[in-house]
Design brief:
The protein has 10 helices and 8 strands. The protein is of the alpha/beta class. It has one domain: Rossmann fold, CATH 3.40.50. The longest helix is centred in the middle third of the chain and has 22 residues. Keywords: NADP, Oxidoreductase.
Length: about 290
Amino acid sequence: MSYSRVGVVTGANKGVGLAIVRQLALQYPKSSLNNGPLLIYLTARDKARGEAALQDLLKDDQLKKSKALTADGGLSDVEYHALDIADSGSIHSFAEHLKGAHGEGIDFVINNAGIALNGFDADVVKTTLACNYYGTMEACHTFLPVLKPNGRIVNVASTTGKLDKYSEDIRARFLGSKTEEDITSIMMDFLKAVEAGKEKEAGFPSAAYATSKAGLIGATRALASAEKSKGSNVMINSCCPGWVVTDMTKGKGNKTPDQGAQTPVLLAIQDIQNQTGIFWRNEQLEEW
């Protein structure tokens, strides 16, 4: 089948990621981007879980009732593809697949994949940054050449990444960063401080997940600025889905996964008036 639009959702076998895929299919028909059939890649690192999630979607009551999927006469198809954003080889393998299957380019990538580990020490920080920061940004750079000229990247971050937890010096470094390398240097300093047992003295919180998401927000902003300076029309934004009831929040929260999916979906397929490099929450701009 030929598709007019193609999108990717990472970490999509459960929780917010799976809800994002569902909401994309539900909302696409009324999107300003709708110009024909949409293919959504549901990606996950575990094949069994990814394929099980796909089967659940194909039987999903919301999708059936709305006739959203092509099997029911709708506009959207969903396919599973393996992707582990903590593995460079996996990222590049998937990018090659996209190039081969969609020579005209794809329309959007929603980088939802991430981890939140228990405890706090240097190993937890290394593992968390490897996925949430370095892995996500490598995915951004690898998928950028595969995007259409007016494509979109949405990085799912978190309000825990806001800058009210840092010393004035660290906050100033974040806000004054002009390049992705500037943000990476802050992440490296955070890890060094944790290894020395002095992260609080250095102006950081003792929080691996929150700091990784602060880095992601800053690096997203820097990447968007760099692309805009090249004359690119790709929109690159970060967002918080809110406090969503998922495994990651251990069942706590005040939003359902479908409610949490609204902002990422907005940034992927709705009219956001060429806004780029912005942090969003509750479907609106949020101060970092």
